[in-house]
Amino acid sequence: MNIMAIESSCDETAVAVVRDGREILSDCIASQVELHKLYGGVVPEIASRKHIEAIYGLADEALEKAHITREEIDAIAVTYAPGLIGAVLVGVNFAKAAAFSLGVPLIPVHHMRGHIAANYLAYPDLEPPFICLVVSGGHSLIVDVQGYTQFKILGTTRDDAAGECFDKVARVLGMPYPGGAALDKLARGGDENKYPLPHTKLSGNPLDMSFSGLKTAALNLIHTAEQRGDSLDIPSLCASFSRAVCEMLVPRTITALEASGYGKLAIAGGVAANSRIRGAFEAACKRLGAQLYRPPLSLCGDNGAMIGAQGYYEFLAGKRAGQDLNAYATRSIEAG
Q: Is the pTM of this model over 0.90?
């Protein structure tokens, strides 16, 4: 089954063709990074306009690279939630028009479900159930993946997402957008013990997280040094911050993994590309004798292939949408 998949939830316009949920025939992305660097972050209205400009040509490119015709497309899958509402609407409206004109089913896909499904593309042997940590610029979730379309949130951030904190601290340090990758690169040459940073403990669900206090502490440290004229060891600050985020994410995820008894852990989302986090999970899973699934860096960020992978399993579960499909800025992964 050939699925054309469309992703436009933030600042990447992406169209892919995926076969049977596991094989990438093409995965085309039009990045807006250079444009948004001018503003230090994503400008929603600009992102939406750029999606409109890119999406049609990108769809033709995806077909050409997949070496198939429009008539060989069996369904259209599209991210319909969550994301920047204007950006998501561009993809949804294009997908509705494509599905209508081709006379094929339209499959709505939750963006976070797509990130998890990136692992199916990288690991053809991976099947639910497993535990997955989904960490991105807007989300931090520990998810029990009970089936291809059955998800239960075990823990989540109560305030900021891990990726948002990485990007904010990097921006204050003067790093170019997207800051998380630049911060990670600098952190590799720093002393992670040089700057003590707080680790928030929450009441209630022990798997829930909070990153706002950590972010505030790091920003206060930077601003205080600037006001006093003190110099900062930037690589060590980056390393200390990365360690603090890692120590918020990893122990909680490993606790969930041990409680599940699955013996399988996946990570997903843009922050899953962070070298400190990937290394910590590798060490933890090795210690436990658990299998770790980490998508390649190309599948950690937003892409169309992951939407096509999850779209296949949503299709098998009977999920369809009509021409009244709408876009949503927020929506639980459990609701789908």
A: yes
